[in-house]
Specification:
binds D-galactaro-1,5-lactone, 8 helices, 256 residues
Length: 256
């Protein structure tokens, strides 16, 4: 039996994965700070180390989605995302969990310039250039992953997720979209790939307008199937400042 703990199971991506990850021979252990309406689900704050150690008992891998998924004041980001991600890695170590798949974000590098030439793809592991306190928390989460790999031998795959939604909502999203099905494919690849060590991988679909590389994903066996271009007809220009930010920077409107 493979046991996978999903933190943030009640959130947007958590709900997408809960619908796509069940399979024979796998137990999904769901955790969120708000109750999840599933048998055996755990209600706990990811920053509660004792609760996280208990939740990690007997687990093979953690998919860590929990925390705040956008910009907020520093204290909130610190408590939920930084303390929470520390507690997840430390609990995984104490409980002997071998692998953590960490939902990082493109906002860890949000102020990186998008290439002018769409043939020049951006590599997976760009140096940190956060666009918000939220982005800073994702940089710190990746740094914790690197530390827990180097010092304690955990396998850690950090996914710099783009726009994970049922469909893109603006022009930037035609490039940055990660479909729910591709999100599940990416997480499955991160769970299945043998001995990944520490890696940072873009989370993006096979979008025609994509400028983020799929090489890191390919290296762990991720084969995206979806392309945001099918939504292009109904995705026109929006707020000009936001569209321009999306053309200019990885993080789009988060940089404004
Ligand atoms: C993220 O990291 C956010 O969680 C999500 O709400 C989107 O804003 C997404 O990035 C994006 O960049 O589109």
């Amino acid at each position: 039996m493979q046991r996978v703990l999903i933190t943030g199971a009640a959130g947007r991506i958590g709900r997408m994965l809960r619908a796509r990850m069940p399979r024979p021979g796998r137990e999904l252990r769901l955790l969120d700070r708000v109750p999840v309406d599933e048998p055996g689900a755990i209600t706990a704050d990811v920053a509660d180390l004792a609760a996280m150690v208990a939740a990690c008992e007997g687990v093979d891998a953690v998919v860590h989605l929990g925390g705040i998924s956008g910009e907020a004041d520093w204290a909130s980001i610190r408590d939920a995302n930084i303390e929470g991600t520390y507690a997840v890695f430390e609990a995984a170590r104490r409980a002997g969990v071998r692998r953590v798949v960490y939902a990082s974000s493109n906002h860890a590098v949000g102020f990186a310039h998008q290439p002018h030439d769409p043939d020049l793809e951006m590599p997976d592991h760009l140096s940190p250039r956060p666009d918000t306190f939220y982005g800073v928390s994702k940089v710190l989460g990746e740094a914790l992953g690197s530390l827990y790999h180097d010092r304690h031998g955990l396998d850690v795959v950090c996914l710099r997720i783009g726009t994970c939604a049922d469909e893109p909502h603006d022009l930037r999203g035609l490039s940055t979209w990660l479909s729910p099905d591709d999100c599940a494919r990416l997480v499955e690849a991160a769970l299945a790939t043998p001995s990944p060590g520490f890696r940072v991988v873009w989370g993006v679909s096979a979008n025609t307008r994509r400028v983020w590389s799929l090489d890191g994903g390919a290296a762990i066996g991720y084969v995206p199937q979806d392309d945001a271009e099918v939504f292009a007809d109904r995705t026109g220009p929006g707020d000009p400042a936001k569209d321009e930010a999306g053309r200019r920077y990885v993080g789009g409107a988060f940089t404004l």
